[in-house]
Amino acid sequence: MIEKVMAKLEKSAVFKKFKQDKDFYLTHIFTMIEEKKEQIWQIGFYNKKKDKMIVFEVDGKITQGKEEEVFKKEKFVKKLELKEIIPYEKALEIADDLQKTEYPAEMVNRRIVILQNLDETVWNITLISMQFNIVNIKIKASDGTILKHHRESLLRFGKETL
User: How large is the greatest C-alpha to C-alpha distance in the chain, in angstroms?
Assistant: First the structure.
């Protein structure tokens, strides 16, 4: 799936024009899944000199977002390499299997999927349940090893902001 999304992006005229600026590099690939259907794919590119991000949306057509500020913990956003990663579908299968064994009471209705570099390339998958919980799973993208996982209540987030 990632290969198809990236190929569609790379063939587009808007992306070919964008790639003329060599200072941007790939940082993340994102989608949300609702009722087993992927929503728009978002592919992010970062410019270290400008400290700005541009996100492309890949759906029926390709659209380029504006340069925007970056929310980050580190000084800069790490480059994402797409070589030697397990397929998107396999990462989802691993996450679903973990949820069924470790968090069987959670009835998942949404999945947020991000492929990114967090010191190593990971599938960062967040499952959102009907019980108002999230289960976050980080999977090593090179071999499918589950690096960590945890569950939190979505209601907890509201209390912190009050």
Answer: 49
